[in-house]
Specification:
Helix content: 25-40%
CATH topology: TIM Barrel
Strand content: 15-25%
CATH class: Alpha Beta
Distance between the termini: 32 Å
Structural class: alpha/beta
CATH architecture: Alpha-Beta Barrel
Bound molecules: (4S)-2,6-dioxohexahydropyrimidine-4-carboxylic acid, zinc ion
Radius of gyration: 19 Å
Number of helices: 11
CATH superfamily: Metal-dependent hydrolases
Number of strands: 13
Length: 351
């Protein structure tokens, strides 16, 4: 078994960086791990217009540690009232994607879309302009069991959406079910999915192992083992339509260890190590580079990165607590030992 793995520098195709002191706390971690990241727009207030996205991009660049080479790829938050013309302006400004949150589906999604019919003209404009649609694929219907919300979203909404806008590139984000992985595998070249490290590593038992564990709570929620296995199979399949998206979503630990705890796992610190653990567990470390470093760039039509990241088989313990402005942040699997460690990131000559 190899003890060292050198891959082309990877990207994170789904990341929450937050703003202000939280941004300053987590950005160095992602900038060490990744060359680029798709930055989620679910701030308060949400990033709905091009000007807001460009200003947010500037704040991210200003918060980067000296010497870091990291490119934030910006997104807009789709609302019922997004003007279709915003898609042309987005493309011209280098904004790569729009994010569809069904209203009420997750953290800061209350300004999201209440009915897909209301955004048909925007999606048509996105299709025309080559802006990618990122989908939080869960229904919000309280009648639907929380573990079924992704599968029901696919049936009720995604199949029709896909048919209505065949030229639109769609990413089903943080796919968590066998139904999601199967759907994407069969949906053709304009449909892809991101997979988080936590959904590859854990099933829903992790939420309750030894007591309720809020740091394993995220949305979409962890699913049964059969789903986890289907996700690992998809991620390690070599298909170019499955790629890395951490969904690293930091919350102050007091807000997770709470009567109504926030959803989100913090993996920005140790994402590559977690993915390496999952791929190693499946005996597919040789597939990590495509998944982490090539498939996403190819799907978005962006150049692959110069530079490399080197992982070494070296046991280390994930810190239990990290500073987070005035608060504390608890990374996923804090205090646990991981087998792989990111030891070097060479940014390459063209970055
Ligand atoms: O667990 C989650 N946390 N899922 C999301 O969709 C949003 C995210 C967040 O922003 O905290
Ligand atoms: Zn997310």
């Amino acid at each position: 078994m190899p003890d060292q793995l050198r891959i082309a520098r990877p990207d994170d195709w789904h990341l929450h960086l937050r703003d202000g002191a939280a941004l300053a706390a987590v950005l160095p971690h992602s900038a060490r791990q990744f060359a680029r990241a798709i930055v989620m727009p679910n701030l308060r207030p949400p990033v709905v217009r091009v000007e807001q996205a460009l200003a947010y991009r500037r704040r991210i660049l200003d918060a980067l540690p000296a010497g870091a080479a990291f490119e934030p790829l910006m997104t807009l938050y789709l609302t019922d009232t997004t003007p279709p013309e915003e898609m042309r302006r987005a493309r011209e400004a280098g904004i790569v994607a729009i994010k569809l949150y069904p209203a009420g589906a997750t953290t800061n999604s209350d300004a999201g879309v209440t009915d897909l019919k209301r955004v048909a003209a925007v999606l048509e404009a996105a299709e025309r302009e080559g802006v990618v649609l990122l989908v939080h694929g869960e229904v919000t219907d309280p009648e639907v069991d929380v573990f079924d919300r992704e599968a029901v979203f696919i049936e009720r909404h995604l199949v029709g959406l896909r048919r209505s806008f065949p030229g639109l590139k769609i990413v089903l984000e943080h796919v968590t079910t066998k139904q999601g992985a199967d759907y994407v595998a069969e949906a053709g070249q304009n449909t892809a999915a991101t997979l988080t490290a936590h959904h590859l590593l854990y099933n829903r038992n992790a939420l309750f192992a030894g007591g309720m564990r809020p740091h394993w709570y995220c949305l979409p929620i962890l699913k049964r083992e059969e789903h986890r296995r289907a996700l690992v199979a998809a991620a390690t399949s070599g298909s170019g339509r499955f790629f890395l998206g951490t969904d690293s979503a930091p919350h102050a630990s007091a807000l997770k260890e709470h009567a109504s705890g926030c959803a989100g796992c913090y993996t920005g610190l140790h994402a590559l190590e977690l993915y390496a653990q999952a791929f190693d567990g499946a005996g597919k470390l040789d597939r990590l580079e495509g998944f982490a470093s090539f498939h996403g760039a190819d799907f978005y039509g962006l150049p692959r990165n110069a530079g490399t990241a080197t992982l070494r088989r070296e046991a280390w313990t994930v810190p239990e607590v990290l500073p987070f402005g005035e608060a504390e942040l608890k990374p996923l699997a804090g205090g646990e030992t991981l087998a792989w460690r990111l030891v070097a990131a060479d940014i390459g000559s063209s970055q």
